[in-house]
C-alpha cells in the first residue's frame, strides 16, 4: 500500500467571487496491491472555514462508488451519509472501502466526495445565482492476485529497570501494511557483555487474539523470565516476524534490588506470557520508542 502525501485538497465548485469555506485535509488514497474482499479504512479530516455550521453529504464517486461507506468517530457500526461541521472548525470522519469478491484485476479510480448543494447555507454569486460547495479526495485502488506480507512493529519496554525474579515485560504494537492477515510471533534473547544469558525464547501469537487485518493495528504483551539473571546491566534483543519477514534491534535494561518504579509504558492485561513459550531460538526485531519497519515479501 502506497500513499502519496499532499496538502489541503478541496475547493469550491464556484465562481471566483465565492469564498472558500469547505476543505479536506487529505492525501490521495492509493492502494497498489489490494486483494478481493480487502477492507481499506481511511480517516477524513473535514474543514469548515465559514462562520456558519455546514451539513454535508459524503459519498464515493467513480469506480469505487459502491465500495465506500462512511462512519463517525466512536461508532464504526452505524453508516452515515452526511456530517455536520460547526463554524470555523474541523471534524473527523472515516471511510471504509471494501473491494468486491468478484472484482477483476486492474486499476479502479474514483473520489471521496464531500458536498453541499445550494440550500440554507448556500454561497451567493452575482445576482440570484447560487452554487454548492464540494471537495474531493482522489482514490486509486489496483486489485491484484499477489500476496504481500509487510508490517511495522513498535517495541516498548514496560520498564527499563527490573527487580531480580520479576519478568521483563515488553509491549509490541503492530501495524499491517500488507494485503494479507498477519499474526506476528516474537522472540527474545538477552545478552550481558556480548554473551547470551538466560533462555532464548519464542512466543507464538496469542490464539485468543484475531490476526491483524491489512491497514489495521494490533498489540500484544510478552513477559521474559529473569529468574536466572543476577543484578547487573543487560541488553534485550527482540524480533517480531511473519514467516521469514523479520527485522531486529535491541535495548538496554537493568536488574537491581534497588529498583524504583519508572514505567516506560502501560502494559495491557492480556497478551503473550511464559506459558506460550514454544522454543529457544532468537534473532529478533525491536525498536524502543520508534517504528520498526519489517521487510516485504510477495507470494505469487
Strand order of the largest sheet: 1-2-4-9-6-7
From the alpha carbons, calculate the radius of gyration and give it in angstroms: 25 Å
Low-pLDDT regions: 1-20, 118-131, 265-300
The whole-number mean of residue pLDDT values reads 78
Q: Roughly what fraction of the amino acids lie in strands?
A: over 45%
Shape: elongated
Estimated helix fraction: under 10%
Sheet bearing the most strands, described? 6 strands, antiparallel
Please give the number of β-strands: 25
Give a description of the structure:
- Helix content is 0%, strand content 53%.
- The chain is built from no helices and 25 strands.
- The chain has a six-stranded antiparallel sheet, with no helix packed on it.
Give structural attributes.
disordered N terminus, 53% strand, elongated, disordered C terminus, mainly beta, 6-stranded antiparallel beta sheet, 6-stranded mixed beta sheet, 25 strands, 300 residues
Amino acid at each position: 500500500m502506497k500513499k502519496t502525501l499532499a496538502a489541503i485538497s478541496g475547493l469550491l465548485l464556484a465562481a471566483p467571487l465565492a469564498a472558500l469555506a469547505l476543505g479536506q485535509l487529505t492525501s490521495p488514497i492509493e492502494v497498489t496491491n489490494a486483494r478481493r474482499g480487502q477492507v481499506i479504512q481511511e480517516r477524513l479530516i473535514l474543514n469548515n472555514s465559514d462562520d456558519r455550521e455546514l451539513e454535508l453529504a459524503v459519498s464515493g464517486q467513480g469506480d469505487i462508488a459502491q465500495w465506500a461507506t462512511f462512519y463517525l468517530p466512536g461508532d464504526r457500526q452505524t453508516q452515515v451519509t452526511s456530517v455536520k461541521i460547526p463554524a470555523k472548525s474541523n471534524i473527523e470522519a472515516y471511510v471504509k472501502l471494501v473491494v468486491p469478491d468478484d472484482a477483476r484485476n486492474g486499476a479502479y479510480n474514483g473520489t471521496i466526495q464531500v458536498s453541499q448543494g445550494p440550500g440554507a447555507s448556500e454561497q451567493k454569486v452575482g445576482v440570484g445565482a447560487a452554487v454548492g460547495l464540494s471537495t474531493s479526495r482522489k482514490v486509486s485502488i489496483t486489485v491484484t492476485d499477489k500476496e504481500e506480507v509487510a508490517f511495522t512493529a513498535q517495541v516498548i519496554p514496560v520498564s527499563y529497570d527490573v527487580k531480580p525474579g520479576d519478568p521483563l515485560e515488553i509491549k509490541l504494537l503492530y501495524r499491517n501494511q500488507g494485503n494479507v492477515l498477519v499474526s506476528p510471533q516474537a522472540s527474545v534473547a538477552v545478552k550481558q557483555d556480548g554473551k547470551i544469558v538466560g533462555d532464548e525464547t519464542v512466543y507464538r501469537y496469542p490464539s485468543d487474539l484475531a490476526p491483524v487485518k491489512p491497514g489495521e493495528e494490533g498489540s500484544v504483551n510478552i513477559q521474559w523470565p529473569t529468574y536466572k539473571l543476577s543484578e547487573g546491566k543487560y541488553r534485550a534483543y527482540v524480533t517480531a516476524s511473519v514467516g521469514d519477514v523479520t527485522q531486529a534491534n535491541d535495548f538496554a535494561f537493568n536488574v537491581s534490588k534497588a529498583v524504583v518504579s519508572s514505567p516506560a509504558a502501560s502494559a495491557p492485561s492480556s497478551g503473550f506470557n511464559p506459558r506460550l513459550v514454544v522454543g529457544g531460538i532468537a534473532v529478533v526485531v525491536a525498536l524502543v520508542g520508534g517504528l520498526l519497519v519489517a521487510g516485504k515479501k510477495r507470494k505469487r
